[in-house]
Amino acid sequence: MIKTPIHDFLVNYNKKARVRCHMPGNKGLEFPHDITEIAGADSLYESDGIIAESERTAARLFGAEKTLYSCSGSTLAIQAMLTLIKTVSGGTVLAANRSVHRSFVSACALLDFDVDWIYGEDEVINAIKPDTAAVFINSTDYYGKKYDVRKIAEICDEIPLLVDNAHGAYLTFLGTHPITQGAAMTADSAHKTLPALTGAAYLHINDKRFVPDAKAAAALFGTSSPSYLILESLDLCNKHIAEGNIKAFELIADLKNNLARAGFPLRESDPLRITADSRECGYSGFDFAAELRNNNIECEFADENCTVLLFSTITAKAETDEVFAAFMKIKQKKPLKPIVYPVLKLEKNISIREAVFAHNCAVLHLEEAAGKVCAEIIAPCPPGIPVVMPGEIISAEAVELLKGFGVDKIKITEVEKK
Description:
The chain is built from 15 helices and 14 strands. With about 425 residues, it is α/β, with parallel strands linked by helices. It has three domains: about 5-245, 3-Layer(aba) Sandwich (Aspartate Aminotransferase, domain 2); about 250-330, Aspartate Aminotransferase, domain 1, CATH 3.90.1150; about 350-415, Ornithine Decarboxylase, Chain A, domain 4 (Alpha-Beta Complex).
C-alpha cells in the first residue's frame, strides 16, 4: 500500500477549518490545498517529514538512490545537477549534445561551464577529454528520439552521465528509465507525461557522491515558496506509478498502427508520442496541426516538417479514437519536399557566460548580425533548443536558419574576435 503523506496532510488540514493566519493570501478559499510551510507540512529544501517520506517513496519507485521534488520543472533539476558537478566533482567543462534545452545553456551561463558539443550519439567518445567533468544528453527529445543511455554510460565510465529526461518520466513503467540504465543523475518533468501539475518535476540521483549536497544545490536556484499543490500532485503520482496497469501504451501503439495502415507516414518515436511526417501528406507541420485543431485536436508541437502529438499515462481510448477520427478527416495531398535544417557547427569566440552577461551589446537585424558574436539564447519554445549558442559567431547559414524560425532581430556583443 503506497502512502500519500503530502496529500493526506492537506486533506486533514482542510478538514480542521482553521483560521488561516498564514500565507498564501487566497486563504484556501478557491484552492483549499494551497498552503505554506506550516507546522507539520515539512519544508522542501530541509525535508525530514512528509515531503521526505514522499520523496523516499518516489526514489524507491524509480530505482534511484535519492529523489528530490521540484516545483520549478526540470529547469531546477538541471540547475541542481550542474551545481553538484561543479561543487562535488569539480571541473568547468561539460560534453553535451547540441540539441539541449535552453535551461541547460542558462545554467551553464550562471555556473560558468564551458561546453564541448556532441553532434551525434556516435560522437560521444570523441567529445570526452581529460578535463571533461560530466557528459550531458537529452533523451527523449521533442520528436521522440531516444539515446542509448546504457551504451553512453559505459563509454563515460567514471565520468558522471547526466540525462535531461524531461519527456521520459513514464519510462519507469517500462523498465528503461535512464536512472536504471547507468545515469548518475536525471531531470524528469513529471507534468509532461504523468498526471502531475505543470512545474512538477524530479531530480533523481544514483551516484552517492551527489546525495549529501543535493538539497542545498536545489535551494540555490529554487523558489523559497514551493507550491504544495504541485508537491501534492507528485505525491499522488507515486500512487499512480505503484498501481501500474497503464493502458495508454497499448492504446497509443494501436493508434500508430491504425494510422500507418490508413496511409499516414509516421516517424519513429517513443511510446507516448506520435510524430507525423506532415510534408509527406502535403502539409507543413503547422498546417497539419491546424487541420487537427479544426477537428478538435490540439497538438504539442509543430515545425515545417512534423506535427507532434504528446499523450500521457492516463490517456484513454476515447481520446485515441478521437485522434484517429480527426486524422481520417484530413485529405492527403501531393507530398512536399522536406525542409532540411542544417546542423550548425559554429565558431566559438567567447564563453557562454561572457556572452550572456556582456555589457557592450546591441540588437541588430539578422542581416547586420552576420559575423558578430551572439549574446543571447535564441530558442523558439517549443522545442526550446538554441539555434545559435551565446558566444558563437553568427554565420550566414545561421542567419538563414534563424529567419526560418521567424527571428528577425538578435542581440550581439561587440567584443573583439579572438
